[in-house]
Amino acid sequence: xxxxxxSRELMDLATKIWCQRHKHEAKESETTSPSSVRxxxxxFAELKNNxxxxxxxxxxxxxxxxxxxxxETLDADNSxxxxxxxxxxxxxxxxxDARRADVVGVN
Length: 107
Fold this sequence. Notes:
Order of helices and strands: HEHHHHEH
Structural class: mainly alpha
Mean pLDDT: 82
Largest sheet: 2 strands, antiparallel
Number of helices: 6
Strand content: under 5%
Radius of gyration: 14 Å
Strand order of the largest sheet: 1-2
């Protein structure tokens, strides 16, 4: 339950911030679907500085040390970009006692 709720909050937050960053590129009639959100390192840094994002990670029991290099950890394919599925699945794998070394891939 908690994971599903926080995953939804995370998806909504990332989509909202992504839309704010890209509003000049989209027509007003267009809506952004979560599948179109691409998270680059710069956008991820913006997310990490958001208090709501930080609270979601805390609520999901993601260790502070795992949050330091979180983008690199979640970017298992080294593409330099995350989609929301990679972000959410990767964070789910880091919950609790799991640590960065436990994340082999998020695909």
